[in-house]
UniProtKB/TrEMBL annotation:
InterPro entries reported in the protein's UniProt record: Glutathione-S-Trfase_C-like (IPR010987), Glutathione-S-Trfase_C_sf (IPR036282), Glutathione_S-Trfase (IPR040079), Glutathione_S-Trfase_N (IPR004045), GST_Omega-like_C (IPR047047), GST_Omega/GSH (IPR016639), Thioredoxin-like_sf (IPR036249)
Stored SUPFAM superfamilies: GST C-terminal domain-like, Thioredoxin-like
PROSITE patterns assigned: GST_CTER (PS50405)
Protein name per Swiss-Prot or TrEMBL: GST C-terminal domain-containing protein
Active site feature: C39, Y170
Ranges for region Disordered: 301-336
Domain (GST C-terminal) ranges: 121-271
Residues at the site labelled Lowers pKa of active site Cys: Y228, Y271
Positions that bind glutathione: W72
Top-rank lineage group of the source organism: Bacteria
Pfam families xref list: GST_C_2 (PF13410), GST_N_2 (PF13409)
Length: 336
């Protein structure tokens, strides 16, 4: 194990755009979004797809939570094969475009149904393009998650959160030396304290509505007590012991499009069963108690409008709903 965890961020840079600048035009029904409920990076894409109402334009393949060294697998589907892509492993889609693909098989990934090959796995650009390039397919009332006048601030806040928090929990969990771990730990909690102060007087991270900045931070927060506090030794405080961040995270959890994407059973199964270098036995802990996610948060007292001039998304399609037993919200959030 390397002393300090370094994430490989050299993703497939192709983009799906209106002008098809990379050869991939925006076209409803042409692409399938491959995700895993367990993965925080994929969770971002699932949330944005929900909020913008892109379910009819972009179908979704859901991999199971436990994969081997080769690939995420579609073992949740009948016959362990994705019913649209017709493949058992996401690796098959990567290698359909890049034979003997040498890098990690990651989610989220956009797959071209015409060729069966992966177009892109660049999760940062993917959600921006959902907002800016797929506008012709947005639902009526879709929120503006990347308003032009706030983009510099959104990018700046999200960049700091990525380094210290989103990737910071992994730098804690996969550190190979005590100094590397302690450096990541200190940076993580310094940033969480900064976020707590910022969010003590405003409901959302940037502006008075939900933006891309919230979508990027929240998947890490929702996994914090269930996984990162124990599994990754990010244990100065639980999220539920940080009052402002806990209320902020609950506010979003109870907002349509956020909590209804979460399957805590799959999240815990993935981290504790797959990361055998961190958890050699593969035992998945029974705790913690996750029922508190639906308690009152009182964040509405800070003002703000979750969807701006837009409206909440409708409930997810039946085949994409999370089982009630895996989510204290029962898979459907009924109020903003």
């Amino acid at each position: 194990m390397e002393p300090s965890f370094q994430r490989d961020t050299a993703y497939i840079p192709d983009r799906i755009t209106v002008d098809a600048r990379d050869g991939w035009p925006v076209e409803a029904g042409r692409y399938r979004l491959a995700v895993a409920r367990a993965c925080p990076w994929a969770n971002r894409a699932v949330i944005v797809r929900r909020l913008l109402g892109l379910e009819d334009a972009i179908s979704m393949a859901i991999a199971g939570p436990v994969h081997d060294q080769r690939s995420w697998t579609f073992d949740l589907d009948p016959g362990a094969v994705d019913p649209v892509l017709g493949i058992p492993r996401l690796k098959d889609a990567y290698e359909a475009r890049f034979p003997r693909y040498p890098k990690g098989i990651t989610v989220p990934a956009m797959v071209d149904l015409e060729t069966g090959g992966v177009v892109t796995n660049d999760f940062k650009q993917m959600t921006i393009d959902f907002s800016l390039e797929w506008t012709a397919h947005h639902r009526d009332g879709a929120p503006d998650l990347y308003p032009e006048h706030l983009r510099d601030e959104i990018d700046d806040v999200a960049r700091g959160n990525y380094e210290a928090v989103n990737n910071g929990v992994y730098r804690c969990g996969f550190a190979g030396t005590q100094p590397a771990y302690e450096e990541a730990y200190d940076q993580l909690f310094e940033r969480l304290d900064w976020l707590g102060e910022r969010l003590s007087h405003q409901r959302y991270l940037v502006g008075d509505t939900i933006t891309e900045a919230d979508v990027r931070l929240w998947p890490t927060l929702v996994r914090f007590d269930a996984v990162y506090h124990g599994h990754f030794k990010a244990n100065r405080s639980k999220l539920s012991e940080m009052p402002v961040l806990w209320a902020y995270a609950r506010d979003l959890f109870q907002t349509p499009g956020f909590g209804d994407t979460i399957d805590f059973d799959q999240i815990k199964s993935h981290y504790y069963e797959v990361h055998r270098d961190v958890n050699p036995t593969g035992i998945v802990p029974k705790g913690p108690d996750l029922s508190g996610w639906m308690t009152l948060h009182h964040r509405e007292q800070l003002g703000g409008r979750p969807f701006g001039d837009g409206t909440p998304p409708p409930p997810p399609p039946e085949h994409e709903r999370v089982a009630p037993a895996s989510n204290p919200a029962g898979g459907i959030i009924r109020s903003a």
